[in-house]
Hints:
Helix 3 (103-118) crosses helix 5. A hairpin with a 2-residue loop joins strand 5 and strand 6. The protein is built from seven helices and eight strands. Strands 6-5-4-7-8 form a five-stranded mixed sheet, sandwiched between helices. The protein folds into two domains: 1-53, no CATH class; 54-225, 2-Layer Sandwich (Nucleotidyltransferase, domain 5), CATH 3.30.420.40. The chain is of the alpha/beta class. 44% of the residues lie in helices and 28% in strands.
Amino acid sequence: MESQRDSNLRLPLTWGIEQKESFRKYLMQNAHVDFIYKGVDYHVDVQEAMIFNQGIAAVANLINKSFKGTNMLVDIGNGTMNVMNINEKTAILESCFTEKYGTYQCVIRAREMLQRKFGSLPTDAQIEKYLRSMNADIGEKYKAVIQETARQYVAEIFRRLREHEYDPDLMRLWVIGGGGCLVKNFGVYDADRVIFIEDLRANAKGYERMARRTLEKRRAKDEQQ
């Protein structure tokens, strides 16, 4: 199978601002890529690399109709937590910050607590399943420890957000990324002022929309010339 396509990859918010051009050059090192995915041979010619920041891409289609007033957007991934303020539908780039405080930090902490308390522990897959769904085939004593660990982890997320001027009485919080389920399951918050975007493909869909929009604008400009 052969194709020509753009590369749409993401960078954490602050890294994207600082490293956008160098990352683009890195991606364009190889104009042709061959790989096998699920038994299918792919031969890809890379024509262009479009760089979009994660987080903002997931809500790009919601900003104009839903982001009134002051909002904070937090994207909690496996390794990092990325935050941006959006005021009156405008992203405040200087407010962005990235912390290495992703969901895997919670898994590691739960594993350590279980090992310390019981000397044995479930697999990471079992821990992660309970964190996502609060339902796993493990004993109640293990669930209790994981649950308390997750509550402390989420409390720490809110503490870090407050350090960056999060005020639940003054702004709405939008939560995206895989870590959103931890906040939803184990957090203490006002459900009317915290909105969860639970589509795990939200960023990917946003990248596609933004890439298409860029290409459409470029095409329209070329047609006018």
